Amino acid sequence: MLKTFKIGGVHPAENKLSAHKAVEQLPLPKTATIMVAQHIGAPSKVIVQRGDEVKVGQIIAQSAGFVSTNIHSSVSGKVMKIDTVVDSSGYKKNAIVINVVGDEWDESIDRSTELVTDTDLDAKAITDKILAAGIVGLGGATFPTHVKLSPPPGMKAEVLLINGVECEPYLTADHRLMLEKGDELMVGTKILMKALNVNRAAIGIENNKPDAIKHLKELAKKYEGIEICPLKVQYPQGGEKQLIKAVIGREVPSGALPIAVGAVVNNVGTALATYEAIIKNKPLIERIVTVTGKSVANPSNFMVRIGTPTSQLIEAAGGLPDDTAKIISGGPMMGKAVSNIEVPVTKGTSGILIIKEEEGHRKPMQNCIRCGRCVSVCPMGLEPFLLMTLSEKNTWDKSEEERVMDCIECGSCSYTCPANRPLLDHIRYGKMTVGGIIRTRK
Q1: 361-387 confidence digits (pLDDT tens)
Q2: Is the pLDDT of residue 442 over 80?
Q3: In this predicted structure, what is the pLDDT of residue 87?
Q4: Secondary structure (DSSP) of 117-137
């Protein structure tokens, strides 16, 4: 019997339209717009100026604290300006705009494709190099990886979980990575195990990717301590707490991090980036992005340099369909609509989803019918209908008491609501407000 988490969850249509499309290298942009804040935590500090010449892999913004990380140039050329630009959230944020000239890489980066399966670096050196390379969680959360590899005093990792679930409908970037970069993924996993000083790792993959499961199971025979764990298809199994429950049967307490139960979770993309950083000295300058949608002419998976405008990805997938209603950065459940197609790709950009007109508009909201569906599908055991009401009434003390901060923003509640109530929108607002209140106490 396939493993899965026990509380809540939904099963939206998968629509993995690009699952069989091999990853293509997207051509370089003419101009790269590299955001200074591409991770959870403090924005990086810019260390270049207008007019500076930069190379691929050169650091252009430094970590500004423990929960922060470095930003590197993904292209070579001249810094045109340091300015504010609109990011995928719709807010203006600081960015470094580079006019692309050629493709000159930093000499320290090994660009060969030869597989190297081990490193002499110790745990601290690995963690330091991961920080230097600007590696973050590539599943969407963009939490700095070096922080995950540095457990708080008194806590110790026992198992590393590698997230290959990719439960969001439409997205296939991680699926293709597992098929095309399997050995590098395995070595990256071993390196992360060494950094954490654990001898057990499990790669969780939903059963709708049988080719990836088969491929990695064969590879795992060569890598001691790594097991492949097939999982039942159930959204949002890619959530850290849900994956931990599914694979090792442990439940992360309310308000706690995975390390509280001895687990550290990293995405398959993060494991690949770790391999490239430690073995090839390559910082995080590119990632795989799925471009898809039911009206898209050529749903595809592209290897994309950070800072490339979204418009270039859409053009490479056949152009913007005439019946487009929305463009989503990410998947349909947790992604956010972008305000324009020049929004740049960041470390957290997993996909570009183009929604057609007949599916791109919300239905009119109706009164709650007290059916309880939102409660039954919440994977965190919350009461979404109540949290929405508390948010509407600005009742923040009660919102905190009802564990609004435990919401993982998966959207299962909104997806299943027969009254079309924007539950997640209100809960996100409540979570943001309560989070701010909590921070002021500290």
Answers
A1: 889 999 999 999 999 999 999 999 999
A2: no
A3: 87
A4: ------HHHHHHHHHHTT-B-
To the nearest whole number, what is the mean pLDDT of the chain? 96
Nearest Cα residue to 188 out of 111, 114, 110, 279: 279
Q: Which tokens in the block code for residue 74?
A: 């993904």
- Token readout for 106 is 């930093």
Closest to 4 (Cα-Cα) out of 217, 228, 243: 243
Q: What CATH number matches the domain at 123-280, 3.40.50.11540, 3.40.50.20, 3.30.450.30, 3.40.50.300?
A: 3.40.50.11540
> Do residues 167 and 11 touch, judged by C-beta distance below 8 A?
no
Question: Distances in Å between the alpha carbon of 90 and those of 85, 281, 332, 337?
Answer: 9, 34, 17, 9
pLDDT attached to residue 1: 81
% of the chain with per-residue pLDDT over 70: 100
| pLDDT exceeds 80 at position 339 | yes
Q: Which residue blocks in 173-209 are alpha helix, DSSP H?
A: 173-180, 182-196
Domain 24-109+284-359 indexed as CATH 3.40.50.300:
no
Give the global pTM. Answer: 0.96
CB 235 within 8 A of CB 12: yes
Question: Kind and range of the H or E element at 62?
Answer: strand 59-62
For 382, the 3-state DSSP assignment is: coil
Query: Which of 8, 105, 6 has its CA nearest to residue 379?
Result: 8
Residue 200 has pLDDT above 90, yes or no: yes
Q: Where are the domains of the chain?
A: 24-109+284-359, 123-280, 373-441
Rg for the chain, CA atoms, rounded: 21
- How many angstroms separate the CA atoms of 78 and 54, rounded? 6
3-state helix, strand, coil in the chain (%, to 5): 30, 20, 50
